[in-house]
Amino acid sequence: MTSRVFANAPLVPGEVIELDPQESHYLVRVRRVRPGAAVEVFDGHVGGCSGTLLDASVGACRVRLEAALAFPDVPAIELGVALIDPKAALDVVARACEGGAVALTWLQTARSFNAAPSAARLERVLRAAQRQCGRPTPPRILGPVTLADWLAEATDRPTWFAAEHERLDPAAQATESKDASRGARLLIGPEGGWTSEESRRFHTSGVRPLSLGPWILRTEVAVTAGLARLWNREGGLIQAPRHAR
Known about the structure:
single chain; 245 residues; alpha/beta; CATH 2.40.240.20; Alpha/beta knot; 2 domains; six-stranded parallel beta sheet; disordered C terminus
């Protein structure tokens, strides 16, 4: 896996930057990277640069920035996820980041419970997920808001809800693929599923059911399965190479 770190300074190709102690420790002690190795540096907000590690000081590594990294344009897929157990919620955040969601909103539903994870815990999980998948910017984490408020938000993107035991005909599946290429919204329910009243609200609001298979999935697994379905169109929405420019 490529070694990826975060910098608090603007990333300008050709310049040398010094990493903070936490990121330096990650490179030297965790990744065991040595001087001369290629690394990627993210600013955590906009993008990143390829670079070369100049020295491997545990407290302050220096990296020479080489070139801006190119990233593909991707459809804007937003998630609405019912609040669940805090540990599982952190897994959901990681899967949402690695799966390409641009936003995740925590929802208060009839069967949801607990509070949203703290900002500090979210930052640690998101950074770990970004290091793994090479994504330069994390998804926005929003809420909690009520399910009714989330459904009432103005949007031109099609919206689905993860539904148990739903089967869509081929025409509906073809429509899903076309819609997902320009962005979409997906609702993932709580443990215990949606209530009958919530399901009725989906249908009256024009929210369509999306089957994730024949079995009942854990929330974090449903996030991965749902994102995969929305990403899939004729073998994959994105085929762009990821390289420095």
